[in-house]
TrEMBL record:
One Pfam family of this chain: CobD_Cbib
Family to which this protein belongs: Belongs to the CobD/CbiB family.
Compartments where located: Cell membrane
Membrane-topology descriptor: Multi-pass membrane protein
Keyword vocabulary terms for this entry: Cell membrane, Cobalamin biosynthesis, Membrane, Transmembrane, Transmembrane helix
Pathway assigned to this chain's UniProt record: Cofactor biosynthesis; adenosylcobalamin biosynthesis
Function description: Converts cobyric acid to cobinamide by the addition of aminopropanol on the F carboxylic group.
Database matches in PANTHER family: COBALAMIN BIOSYNTHESIS PROTEIN CBIB
Protein name: Cobalamin biosynthesis protein CobD
Transmembrane segments: 47-66, 277-298
Length: 299
């Protein structure tokens, strides 16, 4: 049943993409931002952030845990939950217009569209590099992380992972405003993403230039300030044989990111290559899930 649920959710995502209206994660993010604006002030900001993580995540996860226990209906609910926690088709629909803009020479539009999918300053970002990095990192967060936790803990696990990941995207900045309030969300996101990120890095390596990807993962990932993004992007860059990283501007502040991967700087064609890498890795995951499910049935 696990394999059928995964395949069904992936197919729905491929056919329909994310819900056009009333996407649960979008509504959750707006709620999180509203609560942050109200409570991220005064004393005990770290404690407030921690409590709000529990208040926001626990009720929907417990509700889904109860609903998925209902015979037949619960299995359908599980597929729907996995569908809206997956974001591969949504990622493709954001990246393809960037590629089209680059191919017709409209770098202004490409830069603006790229800024929509990251937290970097539009005027300063390098479009190709940033877009490839976004594909690789979102492959971990919006695809393989959700699949991993769905396999481990069902729909409640996938939902909890994506809600925590969303809170990190909303609050997990190393700025004066968020360093205390967003601390719990950022640390929890690091924790729940620890294993999925490394499995994603391994998948990228196996589906690309394996030796180079493993070398980049081993030597470059420790230099990155994120324990999870480092392995994912180093292995992904190595698998694609491109160079990522370097100076990056976040909200007016320049940060020196380590160079990741080997080869030339990212080119427009590498956006498609990065999407194909994620697709191949997803095929690998689905094949393994089907195999493990078949073995479990036979045993």
């Amino acid at each position: 049943m696990l394999a059928l649920q995964v395949i069904a959710a992936v197919l729905i995502d491929r056919w329909l993409g994310e819900p056009a209206r009333w996407h649960p994660l979008v509504g959750f993010g707006r709620c999180a931002n509203g609560l942050e604006a109200r409570f991220n002030r005064g004393a005990s900001r770290r404690l407030k952030g921690l409590l709000l993580v529990g208040v926001l995540v626990a009720p929907p996860v417990l509700l889904i845990a109860a609903l998925t226990q209902i015979p037949i209906i619960g299995e359908l609910i599980a597929v729907l939950v996995l569908w809206f926690t997956l974001g591969l088709e949504s990622l493709k629909r954001h990246i393809r217009p960037i590629l089209r803009a680059l191919l017709r020479g409209d770098r202004a539009e490409a830069r603006q569209r790229t800024a929509w999918i990251c937290s970097r300053d539009a005027a300063e970002l390098e479009v190709e590099r940033t877009a490839v990095e976004s594909v690789l990192e979102n492959g971990s967060d919006a695809v393989f992380g959700a699949l991993f936790w769905f396999c481990i803990a069902g729909a409640p696990g996938a939902l909890a992972f994506r809600l925590i990941n969303t809170l990190d995207a909303c609050w997990g900045y190393r700025s004066e405003r968020f360093s205390q309030f967003g601390w719990a969300a950022a640390r929890l996101d690091d924790l729940v993403g620890l294993i999925p990120a490394r499995l994603t890095a391994l998948s990228y390596a196996l589906c690309g230039h394996t030796r180079r990807a493993l070398h980049c993962w081993r030597t470059q990932a420790p230099l990155h300030d994120s324990p999870n993004a480092g392995p994912v992007m180093a292995a992904g860059a190595g698998a694609l044989r491109v160079q990522l990283g370097g100076p990056t501007c976040y909200r007016g502040v320049w940060v020196e990111k380590p160079l990741l991967g080997e080869g030339e700087a990212a080119q427009p064609r590498d956006l498609s290559r990065a999407l194909h890498l994620v697709d191949r890795a997803l095929g690998l995951w689905i094949s393994l899930i089907v195999l493990l499910t078949a073995v479990e049935v036979l045993l």
